[in-house]
């Protein structure tokens, strides 16, 4: 899984049928050293994550299992928010080593 | 999933049988800061996405489920357009932070 | 899927049993702007792609389904040629934008 | 699989139901030449890996099989610690070649 | 699949049960132009690949199918050696183009 920050949403009306009613967030992957990562990931969300929140995202089957556990294989998604982060504890030594 | 721009199409006559009649687009992955991403992805499309449109693409099972939900495992593809983007809402603070 | 150019072949006699009689090509992923991509991918091929040809390759289940649709899960491969490219149509505006 | 160093933990109360009671570590992927890798990976752990330890992590089904072998498909995770490293033997010639 | 050079081994006593008795190699992915790739991959091996040998590695289901074809889903691995390379034929034109 990866850590990301919610930076927005994306809307699509012309889409694969099984995606109807799903909300898609724009997630900016982050790292703890604030190195720039330019890509964004589009992730489905059922937890109600808001812009500015830090989230844990998962790919593949894990994402489909998060969004629709009754029938994950029926979904055409491969990324989803699986948790909204409350707190991170990071080893201070490591932060210094690499900065 | 990732965001991409449709930049063209690719044709193949000598191909795996299960790909007959599928349309393959050349997708240029994009990000919101317009940083250059040099790779292109080849994605199957059944939504009729045209050159210049922004699309959401998915990989793996999600792609096969988008193209042929009756029997996704029968397809030899692992990328597909799952939605054509109408609108994106992006946090303006984040746009400034990183630019 | 990705676009690649066939640049060679690789031979292995000591290999996993289910790979017997499979041909493995060395594929150099390409992009449309000719930016250098240094990695190569090893892909199984049943279409007879030759050195210098441009091909579409797929990963994972899609690759196994291409090579052995009767029993894809029995194969220890995760990349295959799924099509030999005849023609690509690329938006000229995009080519200029990014060059 | 990849090698990583445990650098911290992450907590989430608002999360997908099937993640209840799982511990999530922040893993910094490492390589043997100490080249900086800026991303971190979030991995589930049932082995009790502590901050500073070097671990082997796996992705996808392998991760779910590590955490919950009774029903791996029920989990919304795609990365897990599968081993805590005791010792590595690395070819000294290779270390010199590349340094 | 990718090409790699075996550069060492890694030992773990505290590990997921289904990994007992498996041998884990440290693989340095290589390319044909000798561009430096800093990451290493940890791959299971049943072929007896030794330090210095060039191997073909596969990810995901393909790796589990290589190591334990009787019940691949029971393994918590996602990378394995699937072949030891005897010979590679590479187009000399391509080698010159890119060097």
TrEMBL record, chains A, B, C, D, E:
Gene3D superfamilies hit by this protein: EutN/Ccml
Compartments where found: Bacterial microcompartment
A Pfam family: EutN_CcmL
InterPro entries: EutN_CcmL (IPR004992), EutN_CcmL_sf (IPR036677)
Source organism superkingdom: Bacteria
Protein name: Ethanolamine utilization protein EutN
Keywords (A to Z) from UniProt: Bacterial microcompartment
Gene Ontology annotations for the cellular component aspect, listed alphabetically: bacterial microcompartment
Residue runs in coiled coils: none
